Amino acid sequence: MSSFVLYLIGFAILIGGIAWALVEAGVPHLYIVIASVILTGVGILKAVSHTRAKDISRN
After folding, report:
1. Contact 7, 50 (CB under 8 A)
2. Tens digits of residue pLDDT in 6-35
3. Which of 42, 45, 50, 59 lies 20 to 30 Å from 4, alpha-carbon distance?
């Protein structure tokens, strides 16, 4: 399994935990969905930036 997939799985678990906590706190579902979409985008951006191969042609 690649590092990218493992990173996304971990981030999905994190988002699930945050969403669960927000549900238990009584936050409206619309705000939970919005927060989850934003965090998913951040997770994908971070996964790509942390797992992409370094360009060896550059110093």
Report:
1. yes
2. 888 999 999 999 999 999 999 999 999 999
3. 59
CA separation, residue 31 to residues 3, 14, 41, 53 (Å)? 30, 17, 16, 35
Indicate whether 56 pLDDT > 80: no
Cα–chain center distance at 20: 15
Q: How far apart are CA 46 and CA 59, in angstroms?
A: 23
- Rounded Cα–Cα distance for residues 1 and 21 (Å): 29
For residue 52 the two structure tokens come to: 């992409």
Full-model pTM: 0.77
User: Taking 80 as the threshold, does the pLDDT of residue 54 lie above it?
Assistant: no
